[in-house]
Amino acid sequence: MSDFKYSPVLGAVPDLTDYRFIGSEGVNEFKIGPRFFLEIDEKTISDLSEKAFSDVNHFLRASHLAQLRKILDDGDSTMNEKYVALELLKNAVISSGGVFPLCQDTGTAIVMAKKGQGVLTSGCDEKSISRGIFEAYKNNNLRYSQVAPISMFDEKNTGTNLPAQIDIYSGDELKYEFLFMAKGGGSANKTFLFQETKALLDPEKITNFLAAKMRDIGTSACPPYHMAIVIGGMSAEFNLKTVKLATAGCLDYLPCSGNILGIAFRDKELEEKLLEISKNMGIGAQFGGKYFCHDIRVIRLPRHGASCPVGIGVSCSADRQIKAKITSEGVFLENLETDPSLYLPVPEPEITGSVHINLNKPMDDIRSHLSGFPVSTRLLLSGKMVVARDIAHAKIMELLKNGHEMPDYMKKYPVYYAGPAKTPKGHASGSFGPTTAGRMDSYVAEFQKRGGSLVMVAKGNRGRQVRDACKEFGGFYLGSIGGPAARLGRDCITKAELIEFPELGMEAVYLIEIKDFPAFIIMDDKGNDFYDSTMV
Q: Within a domain: residue 49?
């Protein structure tokens, strides 16, 4: 029998984070016998949690902003992806003012923490963290997105953005470490687990497999992405935990080779190969080009001989995570970039060629105008749109099934799939970016048949059923840029009026007025689909 040897699977990853000092109130180190202990007051943990979720919804890491600027500086970038990158940088500048959050989907609050054995806290840590999350979402213009099941089929928004996902692990150092994440539904829905076998562990097979899965992710989670791929794992849960940590940049310093003890490692050769494949897919930063991904991390884990889980996940253009730690010296929070204007080019590049569309004209006139342009055409929309997303669509479908007519607003106006964050004082709207179009695919044919949803605005690629319905009924799907919700809310939406289903909160139906709202023709009335030509 071999001697016992221990090595943590994820290794002793060095923490090279740039922290700033928050304070030392509520933190006390003391000694009993030979042992040192760190006592932390529950209010200190709550205050840290509140500050973290306020910061992470308004600021980004400097490294992420630098990657957006790289797109603008790259002579091989397409005009469309330069346009997207510029919009995302402008959005970051607006959000850094602390009024408009980066994204209207201010996310599920996720906390992963490691508590040293000698750390003592005065209350229930999960409750203390939750209290901070509650205060952050109450005191900022953030959206409440969590719904609680009242029965198997009935749900109600909790009105607090709680509950949060909080996982606390034990550590052996005298400190309390935290990773705070705000994870929107779009990128969360692009986390996948595949239960494969040893047969996949072949260079050609695994490359082809992963390339196909990358294409399947599509654009609905707001690229350019930070993508993570994890192969192996002692369980499905461990695999996906590793995916989440890797998308947050927490495992960048893993070694590049494994050992007999089962340590995780990065396969940088496969990373480079997959990144090159992503550049050649043609999807780019949402509307064509090579910047589908900023970067790709491929991590190999040990596994049970009969199981080979493969996990894939992304962090989107709202790359929202922030680290923190509490030590004997006090409380520290990761430095995010508070002046993203440093990453805007001076002078700002002028990107021309957008077609102006007047949405105040009759629907037939709007469609006739759109019909004269090919897919991928860049647009600036002005006029009125109705806002309706998941639950509103379900309610309208229920009305139709019960013999009611299609609501006039669905026939008269283009429909924008979105749900706003809170409206700041003195503004017409809060952050108000698009939600994922694909969730509404099943409604389109029936709605268009009855004269509704003939022009749709949202983000991401859609299914064949939508393309076929647009061809049959003369409809259009316009792709809005996924990510710049603060800029859309502040600069493009001039009025918002709630017109139906007020009980749905952020999922109610609104009538909004917009000015120079950017979008692209993705599907037209002839059966053309921009993504069909790139995602092959």
A: yes
